[in-house]
Amino acid sequence: MHILLEFLDTTAVANMTFGNMLMLIIGIVFISLAIRKDYEPLLLVPIGFGCIVGNIPSIASMAVGVYDPGSVLSYIYFGVSQGIFPPLIFLGIGAMTDFSTMLSSPRLVLLGAAAQMGIFLTLIGALYLGFSPSEAGAIGIIGGADGPTAIFLSAKLAPHLLGAIAIAAYSYMALVPVIQPPVMKLLTTRKERLIRMKPPREVSQREKIIFPIAGFLICGLIAPGSIGLIGMLFFGNLLKESTVTERLANTARTALIDIVTILLGFSVGCSTQAQTFLTPQSILIFGLGALSFAVATACGVIFAKFMNLFSKEKINPLVGAAGVSAVPDSARVVQMIGQQEDPNNYLLMHAMAPNVAGVIGSAVGAGILWSVLVG
Amino acid sequence: MQGFSFNFQNIVAGQGFELTFAGMTIVFTALVLVSTFIALLPKALVVLNRMIPEVHHHTAKPKVREQGNEAQIAAAIGFALHAQKQAR
Questions:
Q1: What is the pTM of this model?
Q2: What is the interface size between A and B, counted as CB pairs within 8 Å?
Q3: What ipTM does the predicted assembly reach?
């Protein structure tokens, strides 16, 4: 009988806390949002299920959780904690990304830089709230609207906040269609939203091949901290554009990125154990995350309006909102808002230029923060 | 983080403004250089293409044939065959 009682003491039911139950509900909400609302399903389903798995309490002598050395989950989480998965995801993103629109509209690249103001203003906000500079840097990168970059930097600067930062970054990326439109409408007039832009020119294959090499050299030489991310992004793009490595590019943008996304999403979800995740800091991180997306959007839109003061060919300021690197969601939002005013105005291709520039900008921003704040 | 301490002094002590200024300057510098490079690339390629003409690699995708009037010809042949069959 006492064996049965001892066993009952070890069950998850006996060790379940209110925090664990809350996290189980959050995990189910994530899965529901992904399935019912189609919010970033490729990420929210693995993260949501990981959240459920990570919040089943186990006894101390059993190594099963991500933080227990030797457990299976800890080995999977190693790819997150050591920053291995994010560069591999960037490889796949590079192999998927077509830089043509950016190559045909170089001035729109600047919008991708302006939107990175969200990173640094969030950093200031986090410092104000009492976070240490390293923690503030890791939180600030949420403003880059780039999940892998956020995970990469928080693994390096503030590993104890990784779960909260990753969940905040991916949650807000899923909520781009909710957060961005009010900011875009607030900062633009109807006349501005109706601006039509010249169609992008055709880009030669040679330009597409040369760009990833030159782009990497420029960014890598300026911010060496970003070479892990930027290097893989441009390497993936070179595989795609070189025309001689189609098999490798195909693997990078399909099987490889899918495997890494599964492992990353699931293990990040598992890391959200109530004991480490449900803290007042997490609430502040979520608040700052929402603010950072709004600020990044606003900075992109305002900078587009600023550029219009000096440009003969006007930029539709909505395109500035795509400077945040949530690819391609924010570009889709720009298209949607533009078409609400003029159904025949196609902004998607123009918005993709600052969108991919934003990916480069946020990776450079992460490299800078890592170089300055590490140690 | 050691408890909450909302204070402007935290920003100054953490060199928040210096980090922001330096960070944005570097991000802008990198992307301005990328933008300048992209703007100059077509001009540089005019010269480069003269020196090293483009070659089509054996593994490159085949060029898409220009769309001719094959569809109209096929329709005309179809119509002619149909008309012949009706006449019999």
A1: 0.86
A2: 139
A3: 0.87
